[in-house]
Amino acid sequence: MNEAPVLRASQIYKSYQKDSIEVPVLRGVDLEVPPGQITAMVGRSGSGKSTLMHLLATLDRPDSGEVHFNGRRIDNASRAERDAYRNRDIGVIFQFYHLLPELSAVENVLAPLMIGRSTWSYFRHRREARRHAEAMLDRVGLLHRASHKPRELSGGEMQRTAIARSLMTEPSLLLADEPTGNLDAQTGSEILTLLRGLNRDDGLTIVMITHDDAIAAGADNLQRMANGMVQDDRGRSAA
Ligand code: ADP
Ligand code: MG
After folding, report:
1. Is the pLDDT of residue 237 over 50?
2. Which ligand sits nearest to residue 48's alpha carbon?
3. Taking the alpha carbons of 69, 164, 199, 43 in that order, is the dihedral positive or negative?
4. Helix intervals (H) in 78-184
5. What is the CA angle 167-171-177, rounded to 5?
6. What is the pLDDT of residue 125?
7. Would you give the distance in Å from CA 174 to the centre of its chain?
8. Tens of pLDDT along 27-78?
9. 48: CA distance to ligand 1 center in Å?
């Protein structure tokens, strides 16, 4: 029953320096992400959710504490190992999509492969890569928008494009920072339905930060951030 966690953070501390004053944000975070589930993280604005997400994605390092991915320590891994983790093992999506405005939807989806491979390798495999990108756009229901630029897409379509991009390298774990935070309730619930489909059909493990109680209620388990720590809400919702 108790499968080993995909991601485990233990005793994470992180402070920011503000005008030579140290501002503690994470004060002993413990978190276990079970495989094959959608884990929602909730908490007030400023409670450190994005800070924690950055540490889990190895975009930043904790002051102390450890992060393990499938049992392997990643927070202090070499730059090459962290690059490989980000380019191969995880996908990341954000509230504001972070699409490149000059590229079409399909080119945005292709971008990780252009970065992850040598130019030579990319051009050698570009037809295959493009077919894969189109398959990912199809997977998120957006193939008919492949040649559209981000400004020609709705918010929901931009997030679908970002999800397709995150799937390009076939990650086993998706980290999502407020993926529905800029969308109306109906569109947000469609994005959740899409994420649930990826979880169910492909076994994708998802960690999703959200402000939205309705979105959080659709997750398999709920973690709440407060006072620089994570509380497990499973017991509470059952009580
Ligand atoms: P959340 O995502 O839960 O809203 P954040 O992790 O973005 O919270 O921020 C937590 C706290 O850390 C906030 O008080 C914020 O102002 C501060 N903070 C975040 N990033 C930085 C930074 N790069 N430099 C200084 N302070 C930061
Ligand atoms: Mg945030």
Report:
1. no
2. 1
3. positive
4. 79-84, 105-116, 119-124, 126-139, 155-167
5. 75
6. 79
7. 4
8. 999 999 999 999 999 999 999 999 999 999 999 999 999 999 999 999 999 9
9. 6
The protein residue with its alpha carbon nearest to ligand 1, atom 15, reads 46
Angle at 143 between CA 141 and CA 144, to 5 degrees: 105
Q: Take residue 157 and report the two structure tokens written for it.
A: 């379509």
User: What's the token pair of residue 84?
Assistant: 């490989």
For the Cβ of 60 lying below 6 angstroms from any atom of ligand 1, the answer is no
Q: CA-CA distance, 104 to 96, in Å (whole number)?
A: 17
Q: CB neighbours (10 Å) of residue 16?
A: 11
Distance CA 146, CA 38 (A): 28
- d(C-alpha 134, C-alpha 215), whole Å: 28
- Domains in the chain, please, with CATH? 7-231 (3.40.50.300)
Neighbours of ion ligand 2 (CB under 5 A): 49-50
- Taking residues 145-165, report their average pLDDT: 98
pLDDT tens digits for 156-186? 999 999 999 999 999 999 999 999 999 999 9
Nearest 5°: the CA angle 28, 87, 91 is: 65
| Residue keyed to tokens 């720590």 | 229
Question: Cα(43)–Cα(204) distance, rounded to whole angstroms?
Answer: 24
Nearest residue to 93 via CA among 168, 15, 187, 200: 168
CA atoms within 13 A on the CB side of 126: 11
Alpha carbon distance 76, 78 (integer Å): 7
Locate 132 and state its tokens.
Answer: 């894969």
